[in-house]
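Appendix B. Raw example, untouched.
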Amino acid sequence: MALYLLLCFVGFVLLYFGAEWLVKGSSSLARSLGVTPIVIGLTVVAFGTSAPELVVSVISSIKGNSMIAVGNVVGSNICNIALVLGMAAVFQPITCDRSVIKRDIPIMLGISIYLLVLSLNSELGRFEGATLFAGIILYTFFNYYTAKKEPKMASVGANIATEGALGNPGGGALDNLGDLEDIEYITSRQKQIAFTVVGIIGVVAGAQLVVETAVKIMTVLGVSEKFIGLTIVAFGTSLPELATSVVAAIRKEMDISIGNLVGSNVFNILSVLGAASLIRPIPIPGGFFESGLVIDYLVMILTSFLPWVMMRKTNIITRIDGIILLSCYAGYIVYLILKS
């Protein structure tokens, strides 16, 4: 048992650093090739931070561990909002752009409800997977063209790049952003490729290790596959988002906001479950209602709705809001433990 726990931890470490290296290497490569920051953020970085969920769910689906595949996504989405956003807000109140409240959160809610509807027949087949995966393509293009129509964002990006190149004598928030840009960018083409390749290997190897050890732990403890997917695996694959958001909150980097977590949740449902069910249909053993998975879906929808309620007037998630979100996550974990 101790060996399984150690191997599971090693898998989480590989997932975390693999995702970090993948994002750093591939985004640096894209920038050096002249790809715009907008495209990098919507494609490379979005894929990199959700790569653990993607690989874990696909491998779980191929191996027939369908409840880990679904539980990983549902649990990660709950974790991203209730735990990650809650913890980040406790460290530092988080502000966001008004468009996140008017556009991105409603999209996340709509997609979450759509997933619930697709799961009512207790299976995510290839057709359902195709509609989900088509959704991530549409969502990416929608964000790309929306971003192109926002000149203010482009000018801010230009100012950051310019002030970073000049050493940013003015200081302030742009100084921190420039520093982050310098830290994240890799100038050597060989290192860019190496970071990307090693990152992919780390994510794949880590996901394989997490899935295999999680199944063995589940067997030893006699707990359900769904419980493992919703808790251990979900938390492990959310480590990149957790670390990034908490560090950003400590550094008071308000540019890393709720929009990143909302985008990650959208990507998890559309791309991760879409790809996994396209490769192999995902059945829900025991039935969607009978297995109790419907409760987990409803918790995911509730936690997706809470940030909208909290920010609809002030655009801010306060420390009190963060405590409420953390309490929701703690209550959900207690529910899972009692039920298992």
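End of appendix B.
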